[in-house]
Amino acid sequence: MNKYIIAIVLCCSITSCIKDEAQNQECDIESAWIEGQEYEKNFYQIAEMRKDNISSAETNITFTVRSLISLPTQIPVKFKITDGATIEPANGSMQDFTEGPITYTVTSEDGQWKRTYKVAFSEPVLSKSKFSFENVDTLKGGLFKENYYHVFYDFDQNGEEQMFWATGNAGFALSQLDDSGPDQFPSYRADNGFNGKCACLQTLSTGVFGQAMHKPIAAGNLFLGKFIVEYAASESLKATAFGLPWDKEPVRVTGYYKYKPGKEVINYMEEVIPDRTDEASAYAVFYRNLDEKGEKYTLDGEAVSELDKLMDNPQVYKVARVPALPPTDQWRHFEMFFEGKDAPDDMVAKKEFSLAIVFSSSVRGAWFEGAIGSTLYVDEVEVSYEK
User: Fold this and answer.
1) DSSP annotation of 289
2) How far, in Å, CA of 310 to CA of 356, rounded?
3) Which of 268, 354, 363, 365 has the fewest CB atoms within 10 Å, i.e. the most exposed one?
C-alpha cells in the first residue's frame, strides 16, 4: 500500500515541476538575413546579406548595400530569435526600408520582457570626385570658316585648371563649311542643368564633307581622356584616347541625365535602319595603363568597340555600364557599378591604372551610325571610392 502512495506522490511531484517550469525570459535577435537571388545585386558581397552572432547588447542592425537609390521598396528580412519569443512585424514580412529604419519588437516567451531593434540599410562611406560641367573655354577651329566650340575644364585639388574631359569637337570642326558657334557642335555646355550648367551631347550631320567620307553623322561625346585630332579623318577609332591616370579604385559612377532620340537612325551609307530607335550610352572602364613590358598603354575607341568583350582584355580590371538611358525630358538619376577584379593597392597608388568614363548621344556613334537630333544632357557626375 505504501508503494502505491509513494508512486502517486512522485507522479504529482513530476507533474508539478512540468507545470511550474519557467518560460524563457529572453527576447533577443540572434541572426538576421535576406535571401533570394533577386536581392544579391544590391550587395557588394553575398556574405553581407547575413548578420550572425548579434550581441545581446546590440539593438541596431544595419545591412550595407551598394546604393539606397536602387534599393527595392519591399524586402523580407528574416530573423533567428530566442526560443519561444515572438517578433513584430512578422518574421520575413515585406517591409519598405527606403524611408529609414524599421523598428522590430521581440517579446519573450513569458510575455514579460520586450526589446526593440532598429533594422536599417545604408550605403558605405565613400570618398567622391564630382564633375558639374560649369566651366568651359571657347576655342576656334576649322579649316574653311570660323568655328567656335567649347572645351570643358575643371579644377584639381590644388586649384589648377585641368582638362579632365574631352570631346570630338575638334574633329567635327574639320568638316564644317559654314561659320558655327558652340551650340552647333556635338558637345557643348548648356544652361538649365540639374544644378547650374550641364553638358549637352547631340548627334549632328557632318555635311557634304563627312558624307563624302562615309561619315555622315557625329555623335556628341564626352569622356575622361584626350582627343587626338590627327586621327580624326583617317583612323577615327584611335582618335579617342580613353582614360586618365587615377590613384583610387572606383566602385560606382552616378549622375543625372535627360535624353531625346532623333527620328531616324542611319548607317554610314546614310541608309535608314528601319524599326531602330537611337539610344544613348554611358560606361566606365578601370584599366592598367602599363602593359606587361612596362610600356604605356591607352584604351582607344578600337579597344572598346565591343563592350561585352572588354573584360577579355588583360589590361582591363573593371567595367561599369548603365543598362539603359530611357528617353525623358525630366532630369533622372543614373548609376553604374564596377564589376571585375580588384587592382593591387600599391599599383593604384602609383597611378598605374587609368579611369575612363564615356558618354555618347548615339550608342553606335563610333561607327557613324545614329539619329540626327539625338540629344543627351549630363550633369553632376560623381565617382565614388571605397573609404
Assistant:
1) S
2) 13
3) 268
Query: For residues 219 and 203, is the Cβ–Cβ distance under 8 A?
Result: yes
Strand partners, 226: 241
pLDDT (0 to 100) of residue 6 = 45
Distance separating alpha carbons of residues 173 and 182, to the nearest angstrom: 10
* pLDDT value for 229: 84
Q: Could you tell me which residues are beta bridge partners of residue 259?
A: 328, 376
pTM of the model: 0.75
CA–CA separation, 86 and 112 (whole Å): 12
* Residues in Cβ contact with 331 at an 8 Å cutoff, skipping those fewer than 6 apart: 194, 256, 257, 258, 377, 379
Residue 25 CA to residue 82 CA, distance in Å, equals: 9
Distances (CA, A) of 123 to 42, 85, 258, 265: 10, 31, 25, 40
What's the angle, vertex CA 338, arms to CA 335 and CA 340, rounded to 5?
160
- β-strand partners of 250: 385
Q: CA 16 to CA 22: how far, in whole Å? A: 12
- Where helices occur in the chain by DSSP H, the ranges are 2-20, 37-40, 169-173, 207-212, 236-239, 345-349
- Find, among 7, 68, 96, 358, the residue nearest to 201 by Cα: 358
> What is the per-residue pLDDT for 201?
98
What are the grid coordinates assigned to 167, written together?
Answer: 570631346
Looking at this protein, which amino acid is placed at residue 382? E
Which pLDDT score, from 0 to 100, does residue 125 have?
A: 62
pLDDT at 126: 59
Question: What pLDDT does residue 158 have?
Answer: 61
From the list 212, 130, 137, the residue with the least C-alpha distance to 167 is: 137
3-class SS of residue 19: helix
Q: How many other CB atoms are found less than 10 A from the CB of residue 282?
A: 25
Nearest to 206 by CA among 377, 369, 378: 369
pLDDT of residue 7: 47
pLDDT under 70: residue ranges of the chain? 1-21, 124-127, 143-145, 156-158, 160, 387
Contact between 276 and 356 (Cβ < 8 Å): no
